[in-house]
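Record type: monomer structure entry
Structure origin: computed from sequence
Chain ID: A
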Amino acid sequence: MLLLLFLSCGDSRETRLQRFLLQSNALAIDHQEQQAEYYLKEALKLDSCFADAWNNLGTLYYNQKRYGEAIAQYDQALSCKADYLTAYLNRANAAYEIREHYKALADINKVISIKPDTAIAYFMQGLNYSRLREFDKSLASFRRAQRLDPSNTEIAVNLGTVHYYMRQYDSARSELQVALKQDSKEANIYNALAMIEVELKNYDDAKRLLAQAIALRPADAFFLNNRGYIGLLTNDLQQAKADIDLSIMEDPDNGWAYRNKGIYYTMTGQHKDAVRLLEQAASMDPFIEKIHYHLGEAYWNSGDRTRACENFRKAVDGKEIASADVVLRCPDL
C-alpha cells in the first residue's frame, strides 16, 4: 500500500488530469452525473485551462438540457484551445437546441473551414437550415454530408424529411426508400413515410406505417403523438386524446403534442383551453406546422377576432395556408 501511495503521489500532473477525465467519463456513462462533474472540476483545479474538462463539463450540462450552461463551458474550452473542433460542434448542438441557429451555423462553418471533409458538420448545417426554413440550403448541406458518408441512414431520412416539408412527396418517398434499403429497422423511416400519407389523406396507409414505427420504438413520444394526430383527422377523438396525453407524459418538451392537444380542445369546443395549449406550443417551438393557423381558429372560436386575424396573417405569411382560406373572416388579408 505504501509503495502504491508513493507511486500515486509521484504521478505527473498530466497523468492525474487524464485519470480525472477517465473517471468522469466512466461515471457519466453510468449516469452518475454529480460524481462525473466532481472529477471534472477536480481536473480544472489542477489546470484551469484543461480544454477537455471544460468540453466534457459542457456535455454533462447538455445532456441535462442545461443548454445555456453547456455553452458557457464550451466557450471556456475554446478560449483555451481555439482549434478544438469537437467543442465547436458541441456548442453548435447546444445553440441548435435553444434555437440560436445562426450562432450554430457560425460554429459549424468554423469547423468546415478547418476540416472541410467533416460529414457531421454538413449534417448539422442541414438541420439548422431546415429549422430556418431555408430548405434549398438544407438539401445542399445534407447532399454534401451524404457524399462524405453515403451509408449514413440518418442523412437519407433527413433528406426525405426536407422534401416532405417542401411538399415534394415523390422526392421524399424516393429518399426514404434509399434509407429503408440501408436499414429496414430504422423506425424514423416508417414515421416519415406515414406523415407523407397523412398529407395525402391516405390515413389507412399512414396508420399501417406508423404501426411499424411504434412496433420498433413503442414509447417514442413523436410516434405516439403522430398516431394521435391521425386520430384527430379521422375523428377518433378518444384514441387521439389517449395517444397525445401519453406522448406528453413520455416527453413533456414535445411542442407538437401540445399543438395536437390544442386541436383536440378546438374540436371538442373547449376554446380557452385550445388557446392556452396552442400558445404554449408556439412558445416551445415556432417551427411547428400550421401553429398560427390553429391559433387563429382557436382565437376565432373563443370570440377574439383581432388575435385570430393576427395569427391568420402569420399563417399566410408563413405559407401555412392561402389568404383565400381566411379572407372572408379577415378581409384585410
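Annotation 1: The two ends are 82 Å apart (CA to CA).
Annotation 2: The CA atoms of residues 27 and 35 lie 7 Å apart.
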